[in-house]
Fold this sequence. Notes:
This protein has about 80 residues and is mostly helical.
Amino acid sequence: MLLRRSRRHRRAACTQSQALAIINRKKPNQYKVAVDLMDRIRHLAPAAGEPHRFAEFLQRVRTEHKPKRRLMAEIDKMGWQHDPA
């Protein structure tokens, strides 16, 4: 059980790094891919024993990348603005 949780933790961390890398490239046509990865984190984090990971990551992305209107629009389409879980 602990091994599975550890794998899920690594997978969530890796997916988070991938999403940030895509966002930091500043290529708006790839923001949907980043948001899809964020959705994967939303599902992986609770299974990894990190239920707050997604909410914290979402808040970080919203704060640090607020000027990226197309990214914010993709996030808003997911309906995460008020209820991240």
